[in-house]
């Protein structure tokens, strides 16, 4: 059968653009990078077969500019667009525009993005599929009086979350009715500014929950899971450290969690890679669906390390029109993997972004070490985008061995010329509670308060 396309345009930047370009080239595809003025000469533009400028440094005029991306695709004869993560990756209108232009969107269809990418709609879909959700509003709340009534029913504190949000952004906490009155309007205004949609919904805030997510792959007919990741180490709801598998759940809980993810993915005939996120209450051993990300995740490498499944290649194969190759029985857990995010931030100055120029780079090596990065000596890190520079991933036969490997790899890493979060991870990996796996979503904020950088 003739492939659906032979040239792929990567509508993203940084390390995920590099990751996609490498996977596509290994599948024999011609690759095209796009770049803003600030990213001229970046690593993706060096690795792709062709690179096309798409506009000024501001993301709204380049990586979020649908017309510029489609024009770039047409100009190079691309047959498909991979959105990566962030930017337009969960924008249903963009997926529709790509398809209307006669191109393949590497990801789920616009209908699935609308249903599962809208967090309030996803809660309703989960409830219809019989998947437990955190107690909260049935959908977006319509004004303060409805919000107060719902919060009174489910109990304070409550989270106010943007329906169109993601990646932990746009979340506010209200501890009582007075705070809810103050925060609701702010949350709606921020949601409108960040996502173009002011709709928000409410969830009960579960203290000291673990954040666990299940990776799935589907082709619109069949769905398989690739087990779970734990992402409980977060600062301001932004993940900085991820693991697979979760050390806190037993085999029966793991099976129930993965089964619920499959049920929800099947309910929307899911195609491509996706992640279903849950909160896990360790005291009651109950888990609650919170949202789905209809794209590849930053933390996908830990799943690849413990399953041997190349998730980006599988996404591309599905987009090329191939049926899902994997049966559930093909996918097994092997050992433990940990990923830490190396960001251009200064932990000692409240994680202030630190753009600049990398003067030298020493990449950790040895068995079970992977470094997904946008870095090379002399590269410039612009101030216009997310501060993620690289992901250091390690794998070994179990969690204690993986922690020892991570400690060694962090000590080998060298990034002269840039201030990064490497030192934070070097302290975390040696912390007794982290080594014991005593984690929850509020752990890091309290740890930082007790351990000034």
UniProtKB/TrEMBL annotation:
Query: Which segments constitute the ATP-grasp domain?
Result: 123-320
Q: Which NCBIfam families match?
A: PRK08591.1, PRK12833.1
SMART domains, per this entry?
Biotin_carb_C
Matching entries from InterPro entries are given as: ATP-grasp, BC-like_N, Biotin_carboxylase_complex, Biotin_carboxylation_dom, Biotin_COase_C, CPAse_ATP-bd, PreATP-grasp_dom_sf, Rudment_hybrid_motif
Name of the protein this chain belongs to: Carbamoyl-phosphate synthase L chain, ATP-binding
Q: Which Pfam families does this entry report, sorted A to Z? A: Biotin_carb_C (PF02785), Biotin_carb_N (PF00289), CPSase_L_D2 (PF02786)
Which keywords accompany this UniProt record? Answer: ATP-binding, Biotin, Ligase, Nucleotide-binding
The entry lists its GO molecular-function terms as: ATP binding; ligase activity; metal ion binding
Entry superkingdom: Bacteria
- All copies of domain Biotin carboxylation, residue ranges: 4-449
| Keyword match Nucleus | no
Q: Which SUPFAM superfamilies match?
A: Glutathione synthetase ATP-binding domain-like, PreATP-grasp domain, Rudiment single hybrid motif
* Annotated source species: Verminephrobacter eiseniae (strain EF01-2)
């Amino acid at each position: 059968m003739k492939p659906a396309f032979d040239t792929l345009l990567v509508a993203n930047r940084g390390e995920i653009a590099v990751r996609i370009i490498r996977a596509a080239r290994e599948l024999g595809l011609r690759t095209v990078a796009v770049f803003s003025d600030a990213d001229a000469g970046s690593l993706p533009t060096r690795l792709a077969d062709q690179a096309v400028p798409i506009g000024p440094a501001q993301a709204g005029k380049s990586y979020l500019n649908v017309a510029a991306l489609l024009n770039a695709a047409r100009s190079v004869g691309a047959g498909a667009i991979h959105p990566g993560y962030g930017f337009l990756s969960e924008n249903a209108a963009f997926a529709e525009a790509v398809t209307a232009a006669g191109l393949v969107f590497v990801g789920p269809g616009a209908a699935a993005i609308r249903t599962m990418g809208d967090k309030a709609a996803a809660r309703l879909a989960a409830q219809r599929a019989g998947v437990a959700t955190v107690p909260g509003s049935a959908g977006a709340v319509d004004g303060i009086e409805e919000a107060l009534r719902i919060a009174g029913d489910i109990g304070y504190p409550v989270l106010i979350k943007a329906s169109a949000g993601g990646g932990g952004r746009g979340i506010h906490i209200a501890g009582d009715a007075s705070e809810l009155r103050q925060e609701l309007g702010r949350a709606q205004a921020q949601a409108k500014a960040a996502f173009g949609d002011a709709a928000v919904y409410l969830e009960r805030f579960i203290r000291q929950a673990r954040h666990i997510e299940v990776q799935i792959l589907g082709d619109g007919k069949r769905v398989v899971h690739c087990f779970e990741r734990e992402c409980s180490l977060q600062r301001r709801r932004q993940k900085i450290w991820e693991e697979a598998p979760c050390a806190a759940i037993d085999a029966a809980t793991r099976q129930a969690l993965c089964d619920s993810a499959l049920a929800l993915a099947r309910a929307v005939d899911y195609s491509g890679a996706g992640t279903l996120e849950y909160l896990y209450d360790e005291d009651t051993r109950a888990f609650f669906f919170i949202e789905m990300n209809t794209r590849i995740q930053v933390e996908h490498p830990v799943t690849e390390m413990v399953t041997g499944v190349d998730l980006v290649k599988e996404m591309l194969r599905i987009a090329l029109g191939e049926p899902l190759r994997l049966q559930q029985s093909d996918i097994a857990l092997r050992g433990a993997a940990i990923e830490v995010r190396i960001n251009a931030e200064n932990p000692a100055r409240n994680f202030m972004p630190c753009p600049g120029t990398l003067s030298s780079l020493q990449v950790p090596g040895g068995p079970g070490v992977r470094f997904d990065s946008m870095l090379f000596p002399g590269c410039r890190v612009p101030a216009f985008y997310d501060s993620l520079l690289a992901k250091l991933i390690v794998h070994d036969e179990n969690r204690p061995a993986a922690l020892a490997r991570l400690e060694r790899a962090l000590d080998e890493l060298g990034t002269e010329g840039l201030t990064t979060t490497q030192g934070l991870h070097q302290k975390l990996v040696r912390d007794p509670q982290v080594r014991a796996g005593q984690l929850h979503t509020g752990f890091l904020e309290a740890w930082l308060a007790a351990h000034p950088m």
